[in-house]
Amino acid sequence: MRKGIAVLGFAAVVAGMLAVVVAQTPSAGQTPAAKAPAAAKAPAPAPATPSTCGPNPSPAVEMKNVAKDSRCFELRTYVFNPAVGQGSPDLLHKRFREATIRLFKKSGMTPIGFWQPVDKPDTLVYLMAYKNAAERDAEWAAFQADPEWIKARAEMGVSVTVTNQFMVATDYSMIK
Question: If DSSP codes are grouped into helix, strand and coil, which group holds residue 156?
């Protein structure tokens, strides 16, 4: 019974996060403010993960109401960019289904879940968990350098605009 309540609580938290992200994400037909480079090209280096993401945030940064043992969570949103014209939302889903998730796991990442907003078929939202900020950066670097990922990205190139949000669990969260 407790496990069922925890799962329902987690589902409610994710639904809330998705509602915020979807509200901020351009819908189909709208042009995003920033355009991502073509998917076949190597992506620009990602900025470093905030050091406050993960367990025991720095005492110099006051963060109230957070779990001291929280993992670093990253909520990522991909919106298909038809202006560039490469790929399709279906190809993006195929790439995740056939390559990306497996390669995430190979690189040490922990995918939590993947969602498609019901009113935005051009959007993919997913949640990842990492031990801490440094592990997140190392795992993403390993993933980006993986020859299988480079090949999959080139073969199933999709132009997307990517946004991400780093989070830590609250001290009352069911998932930390």
Answer: coil
Residue 100's pLDDT is 93
* Tokens representing residue 122 in the block: 């051009």
- Grouping H, G, I as helix, E, B as strand and the rest as coil, residue 161 is strand
Phi, psi of 89 (to 5 degrees): -55, -40
Residue 144 belongs to some domain of the structure: yes
Residue 52 domain flag: yes
Least confident stretch, 17-21, 50-54, 108-112, 160-164: 17-21
The model's pTM is 0.70
Q: Which of helix, strand or coil describes residue 66? A: strand
Distance CA 125, CA 79 (A): 9
| Angstrom distance (rounded) from CA 95 to CA 76 | 16
Helix H or strand E encompassing 166 = strand 160-168
Which residue range(s) make up the domain with 38? 2-168
3-state secondary structure of 78: strand
